[in-house]
Amino acid sequence: MPVCDHCMLEVSDRDAVHEDINGRECVFCCHGCSGIYRLIRSEGLDEFYVRRRDWSPGPAEDRPLDVSAFREVLHPVGNEIEIDAVIDGIRCASCVWLNEKILLRTKGVTRAVVNYATHRAKIRWNPSEIDLGVVLGRIRSIGYTPKPFLPKAWEDEQKRQSRDLLIRFGTAAFFSMQLMLFSMALYAGYFQGIDEETKFIFHLISFALTTPVLFYAGWPIIKASFRGLRNRTFNMDVLIAAGALSAYGYSIYAITTNGEVYFDTAAMIITLILLGRYIEAGAKGRASATISRLMQLSPREARRLSAAADAPDAAGGSQRRMVPIASVLVGDLIEVIPGEKIPLDGTVLSGSSEADESMLTGESRPAAKTAGDPVYGGTINLYGSFVFRVTKTGRDTVLSQIIQAVEDAQARRAPIQSIADRVIGYFVPAVLLIALFTFLGWLWHGAPLPQAVMNAVSVMVIACPCALGLATPLAILIGTSQAASKGILVKGGDVIQKAAAVDHVVLDKTGTITEGRPVVTHCAGIGIPDDEALRLAVSLEQRSEHSLGRAISDAALNIGPEEVRDFCAVPGKGVRGSINGKRALIGSSSFLESEGVSGIDAFLTAEQLRSIETFQNAGSTAIFLSCDNRLSGMFVIEDRVRKEAAEAIGMLKKAGMGVSLVTGDNRKTAEAVARAVGIDEVKAHVSPLEKSSEVSRLEAGGSHVLMAGDGINDAPALVRASVGVALGRATDIALESADIVVMRPDLRLVPAALALSRKTFSVIRQNIFWAFFYNLIVIPLAIAGMLHPIVAAGAMAFSSLSVVANSLRARTS
Amino acid sequence: MGIMYLLIFLTVCIGLAGWLLFLWAVKSGQYDDVEGPKYRMLEDEEDEKKSEEEAPDKDHPGT
């Protein structure tokens, strides 16, 4: 099969895109790749294709597609069948286009729509012409992987709510636009004069247009304000409802007395606050759609071996079926293949492999699994396949217990009062007092009762800032979209407020400060050149299914390996083989000694011995190579500290944050890593729940803690911390627990997220000031009974413009 | 004056028509994916024909 010249994925010849670029025939997997290839070449950056040494092609999906997993999402539409799927591998609009086109060209498919934002596909076909397998096969044939989409109840609810909000906002906007048409005519009338009859008719039309805005579009706000009043709190809804309703009531009275009306103020307050809510929901929705998409991609099913094949050795010939995890019972046999997530807790029956349990334990070295070893749901099987017997299901698994702890903590979490609500808490009583004094003052001056009431109400009308509804959402929209362009997903507006207060950062080790997988960091030839030693090692380890072996073979992708004969892997020890007729060994020092390479220490200089000891103290592993019974190379393999970690921690410290490291790994490794990146406070060997209590301890000391991690074991702490950040390729449960998800594995994004939150928070504060400012300065006019609709309209326009302009200013600086 | 009432009536009608159109658009799912279309317009529909011309040996089922 040809390989895409850009992304190096294999493409089937049938679907490949062939292009002639500068006289060379190139092959691409999709038009997106071809476009990028042309772009890179046209920018004169061809070097990229030569330099990308460390680049490995994406994981090849060569395992058979399981059709039965899609049964749940099949539903008939008329005499056709439709499925809901998530297509993994979609990266750009070209991918969407390609998927749709390839499906629509398939005979029998009548409809194929792929949503760019959520990667969800709705595919409809005629079952008499093709079947599900063919449809899914078409998607697979172009390099994408369809997965069943299992909607969560809250997602449907969220979708329904956002549609409801859109309809209400749209209705308010259309009626307000109509209303402004007539208000403008009335404004002109104030200056140029208007005859009584026309004015009366315009007032009536304004009344008719405002009523649905207030009582349909604004109904949720009015309802919420009554709820707020019953709880004796003055929140934003109370202020908005009081302002809009008093403007509305005042205007109805004004029609009967031929006064001036404020219908435009009432309608605009509601419209702008709905706009603000729509913006905020959109910003939040984009982040949560991306996060839920990430979560949809993980398997919720297990490969069960049929009960007849109870004997482990019969496993090869027995039947496998993908079943939902919920239907797996204790005692069932489950097969796990390389790269797959282990679905449930159990005991290995046959086969051997290694499991990456770092997300559960924090221990960065993979754990070897052979018959009799326990495996845990949610951990990842690395390089071998095995069959295990399920011992725990449902809520009993280790993973479920952690999820339970997370849910408990989430429920206990108190919502924070938004800054706007805090201001309003003082503002509303103050305005009510001013209105009362206005009323009493006018009565005392001998004004008639209706006039005193109207002047008091006009204070309430003008005091309600229209732009308040926009102040927070606009700042949040700009803050979160700036964050998103850097790869930081913020789950909501309140997160920004909490992140702005953070003064202590707690970091997990494995996968957060370190890369979370072993790599070769030192390579030395003994008696032969370094790269010759590496070449021999890569040749030997090429077929290895051991994580350390993989680390070596990954270290040098472009080395032409030698042919190895008599390859033999000794599990847990090393590899034996012959290269060019010479016996070659690679493995631990004890393995080499047992194979007859004696006196390893004698081959090494004192300096080398010392450095090995240092490495081992730092939690690394030393591996030796021997050729012809002579020691010929040494490799150090470790979970390397991220390149940018020290810089990121420096940035945090410079911003005045306390930084500490909390890990489930052992103390020696933890301290070595902490030293390397400049962290003084270390807590090692802690369980997931201890991590969260460590965070509580810090918060009890008055700190606002940000916790960054990626594992299952970090989840309780992520929820407990005032801000939780899930990094890079975090586990589902970490994604769900976190408030901020960082899409790129770059630790510098943590200080970046904090800096952005601080900036956004200060923009929110400025916006709230501007929203109130113009309305406050005209309150004296209302007290004096000199308020005029033109003044109200001016305050409305100026405060909205100031808020919008201030938010946009924040984007450029 | 009569003409003004007619115009007022017309504006209100046009406004209502716009509102109904909006309701239809929301209900029929036009707002479900607001990200994709802006990229979709950049896609070259010509591409299909071109690649077929360049590679006539490719058999595309259904075309």
Explain what the structure shows:
The complex is a heterodimer of chains A (813) and B (63). Chain A is of the alpha+beta class and 813 residues long. Among the domains of chain A are: 1-60, Ribosomal protein L24 (Ribosomal Protein L24e, Chain: T), CATH 2.30.170; 69-150, 2-Layer Sandwich (Alpha-Beta Plaits); 301-396, Calcium-transporting ATPase, cytoplasmic transduction domain A, CATH 2.70.150.10; 503-703, Calcium-transporting ATPase, cytoplasmic domain N. Chain A is built from 29 helices and 29 strands. In chain A, the strands form 6 sheets. A 7-stranded mixed β-sheet of chain A has the order 17-29-28-27-18-25-26, sandwiched between helices. In chain A, a hairpin with a 5-residue loop joins strand 5 and strand 6. Chain A is elongated, with a radius of gyration of 33 Å. Chain B is built from 3 helices and no strands. The radius of gyration of chain B is 23 Å and the shape is elongated. Chain B has a domain at 1-29. Chain B has 63 residues and is mostly helical. Chain B has helices at residues 2-27, 36-40, 46-54. Classes of the chains: A alpha+beta (813), B mainly alpha (63). The A-B interface holds A 14, 17-18, 20, 31, 92-94, 96-97, 101, 105-107, 115-118, 163, 166-167, 170-171, 174-175, 177-178, 181, 198, 201, 205 and B 4, 8, 11-12, 15, 18-19, 22-23, 26, 31-36, 39-40, 42-43, 47-48, 51, 54-55, 58, 60-63.
Map the helices and strands.
The complex is a heterodimer of chains A (813) and B (63).
Chain A: E1 17-21, E2 24-28, H1 31-42, H2 47-51, E3 74-77, E4 80-88, H3 93-104, E5 109-114, E6 120-125, H4 132-141, E7 145-148, H5 153-192, H6 196-217, H7 219-230, H8 236-256, H9 263-296, E8 301-305, E9 320-324, E10 333-336, E11 345-351, E12 353-356, H10 358-361, E13 367-369, E14 374-375, E15 380-381, E16 386-392, H11 398-412, H12 419-444, H13 449-463, H14 468-486, E17 488-490, H15 493-500, E18 504-508, H16 509-513, E19 514-525, H17 530-541, H18 547-555, E20 564-570, E21 574-579, E22 582-587, H19 589-594, H20 600-603, H21 606-617, E23 621-627, E24 630-641, H22 645-654, E25 658-662, H23 667-677, E26 681-683, H24 688-700, E27 705-709, H25 715-720, E28 723-727, H26 732-737, E29 740-742, H27 749-777, H28 779-783, H29 789-812
Chain B: H1 2-27, H2 36-40, H3 46-54
